[in-house]
Hints:
Strands 1-2-3 form a three-stranded antiparallel beta sheet, covered by helices on one side. It has a single domain, classed as Immunoglobulin-like (Sandwich). Helix content is 42%, strand content 26%. The model has no long low-confidence stretch (mean pLDDT 88). The chain has three helices and three strands, in the order H-H-E-E-H-E. Strand 1 and strand 2 (64-74) form a beta hairpin. 24% of the residues are buried. The protein is α+β, with helices and mostly antiparallel strands. The longest helix has 27 residues, at 3-29.
Amino acid sequence: MGVVDIGRLLTTSAKIQESAQEGALFASYAPDDYLDVRDRVLDSLDDFNIAVGAISITCGGDETITVAITHDVDLITPWIGGLLGSTVTVSGEATGQNFTDKACDPTP
Length: 108
């Protein structure tokens, strides 16, 4: 019954975390290129329908770059929906080290 929703949540959570890590790794070598980092995250998400606004890129000075993604998953099983609500927010975050001499620029 609720196995479908639990599976969807686990799959979505893993994919979002993986995509945040991909973005942070890419940003480690291109900290000054917000759009390329964002596009790398979106490409990594494949067929997930993630809004561009759900991706956040922030800098910790010029030393680190953090990529965070949030996504709402609509539950389809009434039993799980009754326990958790009709929507569950899944998020992932990863921080990468700036390996270049370029300054981090988190603006689009």
